[in-house]
Amino acid sequence: MANITPDANSFQMAIDEKLRTPLYYQIYVLIRDKILSGNYPNGGLIPTEKQLEQTFNVSRITVKRALDELAKEGLVSRQRGRGTMVTFTAPVSSSLGNMDGLLGDMLNIVQETKVHILEFDYVTAAPHVTDALKLAPDAKVQHAVRTRHKDDTPFSYVITYVPEDIGRSFSKTDLKQQPILAMIEKAGINIARARQTVTATLADGTTGPALNIGIGSPLLKVSRIVYDETDRPVEYIIIYYWPGLYRINMELSRMQDGGDGGNFWAMNMK
Predict the structure, then answer these.
(1) What is the pLDDT of residue 101?
(2) Which strands, in side-by-side order, build the sheet including 233-241?
(3) DSSP for 48-76?
């Protein structure tokens, strides 16, 4: 089946010459957002240089620089005479909320992405960590910071804390190969449940550069505490996602209370 070039006039936002941000970068961001959101799917063609020139009323040099930036990130492939093809597929979570689905989801992400470990050490836990893991004030924890990348594009910034006795069961090298949950289970710990909070936040001077986005860009922040079958907290994890690169799919069922005819949605659990 032949690829169909999308309509360049489908852009909902225009570039602004009054902004201090260069025009090529504004165009780069607009196209990048469409790729990362799935509007320009993997294997499809984006508008031609000529179409983009006409749409944004800019020079070919400006358009070429924007497309070159996309190519550097591994989001597109530019081929003379064939156009610019999208080469990126966003990682998507399909977890329905139970721990089996969560672990399977993480294993799929590990297979599709690469991890860069930024920090790995054992530290005295900060108060918010001892509170989450129910540890003594002077307890030590394994502390790791890493980013996950799809091709050359970072999509998550991950901070984890694990009680020291559990953390000593795996190494920094192991962390590059498997998700922490899998290694915790290999240590003989049966994971039973998790409590998770999802909020919105903004990229700061640490998460912004790590995710290759501007400071102040919107992020999803996921905070999760994982418990074993004795209800002991065994992992405290904080993950920052750029929304264009991560989605959570859930199945919901309509429920009725049988009283005044009201209804609500409930998440299906397996």
Answers:
(1) 44
(2) 114-124, 140-150, 153-163, 233-241, 218-228, 191-202
(3) PHHHHHHHHT--HHHHHHHHHHHHHTTSE
Q: Which residues contact 50 (CB under 8 A, 6 or more apart)?
A: 60
What lies within 8 Å, CB to CB, of 212 at 6+ separation is 73, 153, 154
Q: Which of 26-40, 65-79, 248-262 has the lowest mean pLDDT?
A: 248-262
Strand partners, 140: 124
> Which overall architecture, per CATH, does domain 8-86 show?
Orthogonal Bundle (1.10)
Of 188, 183, 192, 198, nearest in space to 239 by CA: 198
Instruction: State the burial class of residue 238 (Cβ atoms within 10 Å of its Cβ: 0-12, 13-18, 19+).
Output: middle
Q: Residue 120 — left, alpha, or beta (φ > 0 → left; ψ -120 to 50 → alpha)? A: beta
Q: Distance between CA 104 and CA 107 in Å, rounded?
A: 5
CATH class of 99-252: alpha beta
Q: Which two tokens stand for residue 12?
A: 């909902």
Domain ranges of the chain: 8-86, 99-252
Q: Which residue has the higher pLDDT, 267 or 220?
A: 220
Residues 47/39/22/17 CA torsion (nearest 10 deg): 80
Q: Return the CA Rg of the chain.
A: 22
Number of helices (H) and strands (E), helices first, in the chain? 9, 10
The per-residue pLDDT for 104 is: 44
Q: Which DSSP state fits 211?
A: T
* pTM exceeds 0.70, yes or no: no
**Which pair of tokens denotes residue 67?**
């497309």
Q: How far apart are CA 151 and CA 159, in angstroms?
A: 21
| β-strands 83-86, 191-202 pairing | unpaired
Instruction: State how far the Cα of 126 lies from the Cα of 230, in Å rounded to an integer.
Output: 24
